[in-house]
Amino acid sequence: MASFVKENTFKWNSVLRGFLESNTPGKILLGYVHMRRRGLNIDSHTLGFVIKGCGLLMAGVPVGEQVHTQVLKMGFSSEVVIQTAVLKMYGMFGDLVSAQKVFDETSQRDMVQWNALVAVYAQRNHPYEAILVARTMVRGYVRPNEVTVVSITSACSQLKDLQQGKLLHAYAIKNLLGFDMILSNALIDMYAKCGCLSSARRLFGMMRSWNVITWTSMINGYCDNGFLHEAMALFKEMQKVHVRPDEITMLGMVAMCAKMGESGLGNLVDEYVEKNGYTNSVYMANALIDMHGKCGNIEKACQIFKEMKVRTLVSWTSMIQGLALHGHGMEALVRFSQMQRKGFVPDKVVFLNVLNACNHAGLATEGIQCFKLMVEEHGMDPWMEHYGSMVDLLCKAGLLGNAFDFVVNMPVKPDAVIWRALIRAFKDQGQINLARDALLRLFELEPEHSGNYILKSNFLATIEEWDHVKEVRDDLEIARICKREPGFSSIEVKP
């Protein structure tokens, strides 16, 4: 009977492995339930497949917790392999507290579990914690291997910590037997994200072979640092060596064109995307809407938006932003209303774009209503950009008194940019007293900023108070001299 049970367990483990390899986690759980109902023996291989299946399930958190409880009840809590699998599972859920707890409760940790915890923090955008765990690992006399270095290099990329990244590179050269493609790609990505493109390109040139991740890291490095033509040249070179760009590569190219506002290159990239079948991706469609909006082709952006079968909040935001940039304020408001009717809840970015749309189109009433909707109905605390857009909106509408009262009654302290915008609006529309009051408040905020003296001087010249203009210019010269004077310190030593 024992051999019969064991044989069936082995067969079911093979089935579960097949489900895992075919990425059907739901079937893994059904198989596991069936095994338990049949009273079959559950071994560490079974649990390993089931735990990995839970991690792959989008809504697998409650199921994963139940499986973890069963692991403890079955007496597998002392097995490092199982505990490491549970740790990774919680990491995939984004439950870093539970992942850390599993690690802390493991009595005997091996290199794999240390690496798993470092990777969980790095992959979930907690780079400081990843580096802290690695340092604790070293203090415990566990020597980092290639897997550790890859995860910490990723953390350095997120932090843009070039110094720490160089130290890791030096450690890898000294302690690791050669670099595989994964580590080389991680180092290239780190150098590129830190803006050290010469080191990234040198490492790229030293590699014997490249995959799509290698090329994408290098291309995105050029994109992120504003080297448009170098990125495009590398993209063409990538195709010459018959490495097919993936969606991430193309998203980087689209983002680059959007950032640089290059409509010609943007159209070429768009043609490549359509030709190679990337348009079915909602992420790509969102990126293309953003790119065409920023490159001046709002008609194409509207067409892509219209043809989308599935839209996300980013889709609506990109469309509203594009319409706002092109002065189509009323159309942006229509999209904003449609978005809400479809059940999407606007966030602060959406509200900022709607306010900007109202601002560009001179829709003061609609902008005020939008701001009230954001604050009163959605209970959001505005950013300084929201306040700045509202001030600009009120000033353009000629509601200067309202703009001044709005700034004075803001729940947060207005910055200098807002005060300067008010002063220019007051000066242009002849509101002398309001301009004087705003200047006084600006100098209280930034008493030594030379630009404020120039702004005040120009204002006084406009109203022909020439004596005061000379006083302000003299004050500016004194301020500049005081700023140039080096400071000094002294130490008094008793004999």
From TrEMBL:
InterPro entries in UniProt: E_motif, PPR_At4g14850-like_plant, PPR_rpt, TPR-like_helical_dom_sf
GO annotation terms (biological process): RNA modification
Single GO molecular function: mRNA binding
Keyword tags: Repeat
Superkingdom field: Eukaryota
One Pfam family of this chain: E_motif
Residues in PPR repeats: 211-245, 281-311, 312-346
Designated name of the protein: Pentatricopeptide repeat-containing protein
Species of origin: Dioscorea zingiberensis
